[in-house]
Amino acid sequence: MAPVFPLRPGAKGAVVTRRYRFDCVECSEDHRAFAELLGDAYSKRVRPLCLCRDPGVEMYIADVGGQLVVKRMPLTGGRHDPACPSYELPYDLSGLGPLLGSAIKLDGADGLASLKLDFALTKRAATARAATASLGAKSVKIKGKKLSLRALLHFLWHESGLTEWTANWSGRRHWWQVYHHLVDAAGHMTVRGEALSECLLIPEPFKTEDKLAIEERRSYKLRRLFQPSAGSGRLMILVGEVKDFGGARNGRQIVIRHMPGFRLHLEEETWKNVQRRFEPELKLWQSGETSHLMMIATIASGDAGILTVNEIALMSVSEQWLPIESAYERQLVERLARLRTKSVKGLRFDLSRGQPFANATLPEMKPQPVALYIVPPSADEAFEEGLKEMLVARPDLSAWIWRVADGEMPSLPLQIQG
């Protein structure tokens, strides 16, 4: 039997404090020995077990900006007990469900998520898709076999835990946290056997006093773009917050926050397509003083060494960095952000706008978790039928529905103590 470190007498965590097993030692997270056990396990690459279930659910330890944090392995939220903070509601409530097992596969041995991408990471002069190839359609037909740029950004957000929120975190989520969680999540994903982090650039939080060191690290990361690859040019993936689409003689220059002096060139025709395809995201960003506009793009180095956008997707996020795709979602997210009960923002991934999904969930509600659905004014019969099928398939969940055409947002469900 494993040695057990009990709860400290009088610890307020005696009700909800989590317990872990490190090799053969059990300890609660509020015990005075926990920090030492955590550091030792991190240095020895030991994966702790969350003891919310027997015999335990494997976790991993991440260094998030110098702080050691126990995090769930990719796509394992459903294995935890519903009362555990690491528990996740079924993935079929969002656009993630259809991608599992095809576009996203979990390697049980390594605990890594293997991804299949629906966009290239090399560019051949004669065969490369035009930069507008992923921008022409207003909706994406879901095939469940490969991840689009948007779906990859959504998956990074999901695995980073950036879809979760409680009012207790107000004022505590900034780019510093977003950056470290995204980098950590990317470290547990692979593409064609290579770590995703090798071809992914996320701007680190900028500090004037560290300017030269930051630029050196960025230049080292970008070296991939200038390495020859059997007659094709290499591409990289950039995820960052858009500061501005600045004017240029032809097209636009994209200015990225935390990357002063760095510019990405966007061809004029591509910019026009971006304005059409991502009109909702751009309007949400422009109409909200506290919102952010996230960009994911594949970038290439031109003949003159100018960095250009090959393909691009945009995502609007709230002040709390929660993804929003409409004014209705923004209103819902703003309401949820005031709750001390944890909420989880749903993501569309590659579902079209004509398909329903749970816009958010309240996993800790009693007596049942609650899935929240928004029916937009444009919803047709197919949307309503799809929503009905989702509700019938999940009798274990309560449903909250806002039919926008019927008027104001209904009151959010109240917590009922069991």
Structural descriptors:
7-stranded mixed sheet; alpha+beta; 418 residues
Describe this structure in words.
By secondary structure, this protein is α+β, with helices and mostly antiparallel strands. It is built from 8 helices and 24 strands. It has helices spanning 34-43, 149-159, 175-186, 211-222, 268-277, 279-287, 327-336, 381-393; strands at 4-5, 19-22, 25-28, 49-50, 57-64, 67-72, 104-107, 112-115, 122-123, 164-165, 189-191, 194-195, 200-201, 233-234, 236-247, 252-256, 263-266, 292-301, 307-317, 323-324, 343-345, 360-362, 370-375, 398-403. The strands form 5 sheets. Strands 13, 15, 16, 17, 18, 19 and 20 form a 7-stranded mixed β-sheet that branches. Strands 1-3-2-4-5-6 form a 6-stranded mixed β-sheet. A 5-stranded mixed β-sheet has the order 10-21-22-23-24, sandwiched between helices. Strand 19 (307-317) and strand 20 (323-324) form a beta hairpin. Residues 1-15 and 125-143 have low confidence and may be disordered.
